[in-house]
Design brief:
The chain is α/β, with parallel strands linked by helices. A hairpin with a 6-residue loop joins strand 11 and strand 12. Strands 6-13-7-8-9 form a 5-stranded parallel beta sheet, covered by helices on one side. It has helices at 26-39, 134-137, 149-164, 192-206, 277-280, 295-298, 321-335, 339-343, and strands spanning 2-3, 52-58, 74-80, 83-89, 92-94, 122-124, 141-145, 169-173, 211-213, 218-224, 227-232, 239-243, 245-248, 305-307. The radius of gyration is 22 Å and the shape is globular.
């Protein structure tokens, strides 16, 4: 969550020449960009760390009251070590992301039966299986549920861990029937690290380095003496397997509970700003057809309130950090009153090299696409992986 003040801009330029670009890991992005930005620039005196926004409203207005609310400042209630505090702002950009709201294991969007009771054997998002959580997974049977970049990165790390610690057994639980959709564009991806990620994973699958359970839609989870039992279908007669640990990498959803007193408009399916929904709907856009967008699409009915970053995509798993930088540039221009700059497009995203996951050959090149040939569309998706440096993506 950030309060916007015109006049400040990022030193990380979208237009940096390709030869000068790097693909930082999450830790490197923090150490080399975010920490210097907040500690060594004019932002230093305006950044409040260890502070959690609890509620936002308009000063003197609840959600129902209309007349005059657009000129009232925002009141932001937040909590830190000093207790509950508040501040006022003329504009608010909600970039709180979705990382703290992972999707559950259940295939219907709800927690699987027994999932809450088995939490001590379940992790969400991307646990550091080669680092600080190595001891938890080394030598264990570990199932990973999901088909996106997060799941792929975890499975690659688990295969590496199995090379180091005998007995480590990675299991890939895939809700869909076609694993090749997860392999990506390989050598045709204009973001080389993302292509490398998919090609590496494709080789591991084809070499039998992990166990694949396709069309596995989790319905039940229970603890047994042998481990946790993960079931698909009916509790008594459906498919099941028993593992020591389960990692759920099924995406994220946004949390706007702290903005309940504001007037928000979100798409009923994706929970993103309505103007963005038709551009990013994964049911319709598998070929990377998301066009650049900015303040106009991200503004909310509450004047001065914008949703940006991964949270602006709601449940759509297709966000690039470069998109986020362009969003914020446009929003800040809008707040400053520069409508021309707010409307101007200053971003061209790289191509995915894939439509909806064609098979890859042994060199990681796409052999076909769902469109019959490799598309010329812009890339919609990526998330950062720790070791294989995937193309400055985001989790929010």
């Amino acid at each position: 969550m950030s309060t916007a003040r015109p006049g400040h801009c990022s030193r990380m330029r979208v237009g940096t020449p390709q030869s000068q670009r790097t693909y930082p890991t999450g830790g490197e992005l923090l150490a080399q960009y975010l920490e210097p930005l907040t500690e060594r620039t004019v932002l230093r005196d305006h950044v409040q760390t260890s502070s959690r926004v609890m509620a936002i409203s308009r000063a003197g207005y609840d959600k129902v009251r209309t007349r005059g609310r657009e000129t009232a400042p925002f009141t932001i209630g937040y909590r830190n070590g000093a207790g509950m505090l508040s501040l006022e702002a003329d504009a608010v950009i909600d970039v709180s992301g979705t990382w703290s709201s992972p999707n559950p294991a259940g295939a219907n969007g709800l927690a699987a039966i027994g999932e809450d009771e088995a939490q001590d054997a379940i992790a969400y998002a991307m646990p550091d299986v080669l680092g600080k959580e190595r001891a938890r997974y080394a030598g264990k049977r570990v199932a990973v549920l999901g088909a996106g970049h997060s799941a792929i990165g975890i499975l690659i790390d688990l295969v590496r861990l199995s090379d180091q610690v005998p007995g480590t057994q990675p299991v890939w639980l895939l809700r869909g029937k076609d694993p090749e959709k997860a392999f990506g564009g390989g050598a045709n991806d204009k973001l080389a690290a993302r292509g490398e990620l998919g090609a590496t994973f494709a080789r591991l699958v084809r070499d039998g380095r992990l166990t694949l359970q396709a069309a596995f839609q989790v319905t039940h989870i229970s603890k047994t003496d042998a481990g946790i039992r993960i079931g698909a279908g009916s509790a008594c007669c459906g498919r099941h397997l028993v593992v020591d640990e389960l990692i759920v990498a099924t995406g994220f959803r946004s949390d706007s509970s702290f903005a309940r007193e504001l007037r928000l408009s979100l798409d009923p399916a994706l929970e993103c700003p309505p103007a963005l929904a038709p551009l990013i709907d994964p049911n319709e856009h598998s070929c990377g057809t998301v066009r650049p967008h900015g303040a106009r699409e991200l503004a909310q009915p509450e004047p001065g309130f914008y949703i940006a970053g991964m949270k602006s995509y709601g449940r759509a798993p297709t966000f690039l950090m470069l998109t986020g930088y362009e969003q914020v540039r446009s929003i800040v221009a809008d707040i400053a009153g520069d409508r021309e700059a707010a409307e101007r497009v200053e971003l061209k995203l790289p191509e995915t090299g894939v439509c909806s996951g064609p098979p890859l050959d042994d060199d990681g090149a796409a052999t076909a696409s769902c469109c019959g040939s490799l598309p010329e569309a812009d890339a919609p998706c990526c998330t950062p992986e720790r070791d294989i440096r995937a193309a400055v993506g985001c989790c929010g």
